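In the laboratory, one determines a bound structure by crystallizing the protein with its ligand and collecting diffraction data. In a computational setting the workflow is compressed into a single prediction: the sequence and the ligand go in, and a structural description comes out. We illustrate the idea with zinc ion.
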Amino acid sequence: MTERICYACGATAAAPATRCDCGEPLWLASEPPDFDWNAVVDAPGMWRHAELLPFDSPGGVADAAGGTPLLRLPRLDEFAGARFHLKNEGSNPTGSFKDRGSALGVAAALDAGADGVGTVSHGNMAMSTAANAASAGLDCVVLVPDDIPESRIELISQYGPTLLRVRGDYAELYDRSLELGDELEIPFLNSDVPLRVEGQKTTALEICESFAPDVPDAIVLPVSSGGHASGVWKALRELQAAGAIEEVPRLYFAQAAACAPIAEAFAAGDDVVSAVEDGETIAYSIANSDPPSGTRALAAARETGGGVVAVDDDEIRAARRALAEFGGLSVESASATSLAAIRRLAADGELGEGDDVVAVATGRGISESPPASEAASVARVDIDELGERLASR
Ligand SMILES: [Zn+2]
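The predicted complex, in structure-token form:
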């Protein structure tokens, strides 16, 4: 499934490697593409940019991934302190940007002849992976922490995955699942693996296409694992290498102040992101105390002349209210961190009222419980028994 390369040291590795010997995450290697905006193809959703993607759409629900609207919302300009645009990722089939990476990951799994895919998640990514696998006729293994709410189990299980509630250290599950996935030949589409990052770069391809031949002054998105941030950065690098954009928009990332390892490293001038203590925040879905692509996100912010901002829960609530009252949009708290960060950056003079700024609203939030699927298999398992359980699934 195509060669991988390290953004930091340039070393390459064959699939299915996900990390470089230097410790940093890998992404898919790509030649400087022969691409301009005339090479956009007539295809649904994210597949318009097929020239920059390594796989074609598998069809089905993957065709509904991406192609989300970019909204100009002038009534929010005063609150934001800039010319405000919003990329509405809540329009994806399972309600978040995760569908872009899931769709590409499923396309890759089909291409490789795998009979299933997997993921480790307790939220949007679990639903998205299971939905895309279901549509493609692939098995799906979803590993979740044992203590997630029953309502969340119902949401994920409606797509009929093998859902394992794992007792043990959730952080350890990330690495363990990748090892088991290699052994059992089920690609695990975790938050920042190369295939997921490759799909998630389409968010930025679409934003840049909307502004072409210009670019927005800044793109602002929430950051958790750093996977989406990495994909957006990769897209901008590829577009610049191809000559499709002359200037690169500044990338700013937003974190919740209660759990902000990347923002803290940025503020301290560090080159490497270190783990922090867990903290409680209403933006719980981006509270990642040890982000696997944190250092890569930090590099993305620095190299594009942007930054990383920590916003507190009061600022997030105010932004969420403003999005509803002046934009007519209800988004999850994690998504509202983008607008909260823009308001702060404008107050600090980093963004001006004439700047075109795109906030990425990553998801619409989880709503009503659906009926669970009878095809789903839901079990509890200890982390030590995971290999045996997956092999016999
Ligand atoms: Zn490296």
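The mean pLDDT is 94. Keep in mind that any predicted model is a hypothesis to be tested, not a measurement.
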